[in-house]
Amino acid sequence: MREGIKGRLKDMALVDIIQVLHLSRRTAAINMGSNEGAGKVYVEQGNVIHARFRELSGESALYQLLSWKDGEFEVEMDIKAEERTIAKNVEGLLLEGMKKIDESKKSALDKERLFNIDERESIHLIKKLTELGILCIKEG
């Protein structure tokens, strides 16, 4: 039986798992599953070398998996990848992944702010657009 770790991503995020494997220079496969689907990340001697999620592979798959807030993971030690699709260093990958997550959160907040306008704000906005001639109200 292979040694490994199992857990939930809400308790230990993928970024933390990758950092532990990187610092200990381990080779492993990280299997992940959630309501989003299933994904896999391969680490060889502490470096992320391949990731798969749905039809994605490489960095784009890794960035999707890094964004998961919950789900299950299992780390299988000493499993090697069939291919190499990632060449960036771990620090660069994780930094870029966190940047993408922050950008998507900001975008989601902007959309939420745009679409969660209360009725009073909505009436004020319609009046202002009408005054500026951007919006015309038809009678009838």
Describe the structure.
The chain has 140 residues and is an alpha+beta fold. The chain has one domain. Helix content is 41%, strand content 25%. The protein has 4 helices and 6 strands; from the N terminus they run βαββββαβαα. The protein has helices spanning 14-23, 59-66, 90-115, 119-131, and strands at residues 4-8, 28-34, 37-44, 47-53, 56-57, 72-77. The chain has a 6-stranded antiparallel β-sheet with strand order 1-6-2-3-4-5, with helices on one face. Strand 3 and strand 4 form a beta hairpin. The longest helix has 26 residues, at 90-115. The mean pLDDT is 84.
* Shape designation: elongated
Structural class: alpha+beta
Strand order of the largest sheet: 1-6-2-3-4-5
Helical percentage: 40-55%
Alpha carbon gap, first and last residue: 77 Å
Mean pLDDT: 84
Query: Helical stretch count?
Result: 4
Give the low-pLDDT segments. none
When the domains are counted, the total is 1
Kindly estimate the percentage of residues that lie in beta strands according to DSSP. 25-35%
Outline the biggest β-sheet.
Answer: 6 strands, antiparallel
Radius of gyration: 22 Å
Topology, number of strands? 6
